[in-house]
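User: Some background: our group keeps a shared notebook of sequences we're curious about, and every so often someone picks one and asks for a predicted structure to add to the entry. Today it's my turn. The entry only has the sequence so far, pasted here. Could you supply the structure so I can complete it?
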Amino acid sequence: MGRINVFADESGNFDFSRTEGASRYFILTTISCIRYDVGDALLALRRDLAWAGLGLASEFHATTDSQAIRDRVFQARQGHSFRLDATILEKAKATHGERSTDEAFYGTAWRQHMGSVAREIAAGDQMLV
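Assistant: Of course. Here's the predicted structure to add to the notebook entry:
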């Protein structure tokens, strides 16, 4: 079996209160690919935007980037093979033990996510084109 690259990101925070600023959900997302071509396309887009004077202060970020940049990101990823998986955890349903530390909750998120998708990722199943 060849290499499979897995990249991850999360959204949400470890605040379990119902106060303003506390996210209701914690989302763990992975993108799996065999080749780096989708990443190469995104790096090329980043360079093109910088040359066009649209210097991005940091990474692409859907909540802060303009719609025009988000559209370009979606165009750049078209035609490339990858797999995207997301696990959405409603934080109110976490047990007391899972809430005891940030590490406990984060570990739970990873176990649930990878427990659901690891075999399929390793097999290279369902790569999107």
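Suggested note for the entry: The helical segments are 37-51, 67-77, 96-99, 102-123. DSSP finds four helices and three strands in the chain.
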